[in-house]
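Continuing the series of single-chain predictions for the mutant panel. This is the parent chain; the variants come on the following pages.
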Amino acid sequence: MTLSEFGVRDSFALGRDGETLSLYVAGIHLTEFDDRPYWPAFLTALRGTHRRLASGLNVGKHEQLLSGLSVEDAHWSLLDPNSTFDDLHSELRFANWGPTTDGHVCFLLPINGSLFVSCSEVGSLSVSTAPFQPHDSAVAISQFLAEAAQPFAPADGFAAR
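Parent structure:
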């Protein structure tokens, strides 16, 4: 099977090649080291994100709380255990889909009237950011889920009989 990928890697993209997952957020390859998720749990979490994106994603209500911060500063503020943003951390978290994505922390951030995605590797001092389009990402997830409903090809390439 060849890789089918949906979305734009610089913002959000996901795809699969057999049982292997490829996932990018803000240009960061989240599945570089763990590309074999436990599919039932991963797909359940992904469906939840799809519902959230498709229903309008009301993160703009938090824009005033992040007022005056750059996208990068907002990202680091949400990770700071001494910040006043504890409630926002879980509400703005994105791509938090189990062990496959545990090595990264990503957020959807409403800044200056626009929505951005930010992502950093756990323990890293750098953050990647990109404009984020909820509708486009919901479409990419929908396409991925439709393809994921197809059975995986056996590793040896022979169909089960």
